[in-house]
Amino acid sequence: MLNVAIDDSDSLYRNGMEIFLEELFLKEQDESVQFNKLTKLNATQVDVIIKSFVPGAEYICQPIFKYRSKPGVIIGIYDSEKSPYHDELPLCIKNIVFINRSEPLDTAREQVTQAWKQSVENPDALPCKKCLKCKYRSLTPQQMTIAKYMLQGNDIIKIAKLLEINVKTVSAHKRLMMSKFNLSSDYELLHFLNNLKKHNPPVHLFMD
To answer: What domains can be seen in the chain, in order of their start residue?
Structure first.
């Protein structure tokens, strides 16, 4: 039996993905599938991981994958029109398969099947755990502070007053954050920061 762990807030899509994978692996591998919610504990042992990625998340550290101890497939689900593939993916997801949420079933089936075959043919190909060599991106301390105030609903003028710095400085940091994580709108930036706060918070980053 194959174990699949899913982290996706869209229940309809999640249910559809379960049906899709159940049919695919039953046909391709003659294997039944057991589904669970992705957690820090089961991430180390499951055969397939499915995780949704908001724009920008593909650039940051993914600690939940760091201690994976068996080969398998990581499937990243994304909504944006921009492909999340790039040359500096964090080491723990360097072999990820990204699938757009609106991807045709035939295309998704081909991608997952190919990724599974590669994982079976290379059972020792576990992700590198040498975090010091990883090229993941992060926020500077000043950007962390500005991000916290942005998530509280403050505009750049209010943030400048709170931090007693120039409005242009706040605006420059905002542009740098968007550029660093390839974000193209305020909505994407806030969505990314909220995801960072919820799923991957650096120590004390968003504490009051």
So the answer is: 2-133 (3.40.50.2300), 141-199 (1.10.10.10)
Sequence-distant contacts of 98-105: CB under 8 A, at least 24 apart? 98/53, 98/58, 99/75, 101/10, 101/13, 101/77, 105/20
Are residues 149 and 164 in contact, defined by beta-carbon separation less than 8 angstroms? no
Distance from C-alpha of 129 to C-alpha of 91, rounded to nearest angstrom: 7
* Burial of residue 155, with CB atoms counted within 10 A of its CB: 0-12 exposed, 13-18 middle, 19 or more buried: exposed
pTM: 0.85
Pick the closest to residue 21 from 115, 91, 86 (CA basis). 115
Indicate the burial class of 194 (C-beta count within 10 angstroms; 0-12, 13-18, 19 or more).
middle
pLDDT tens figures, 35-44: 999 998 898 8
Q: Look at residues 61, 70, 116, 120 and name the one whose alpha carbon lies nearest to residue 94.
A: 61
Kindly report, residue by residue over 97-119, the tens digit of the pLDDT.
999 999 999 999 999 999 998 88
Q: Enter the tokens of residue 149.
A: 């105030």
Report which DSSP code applies to 80: S
Residue 91's CB is within 10 A of a number of other CB atoms, namely: 20
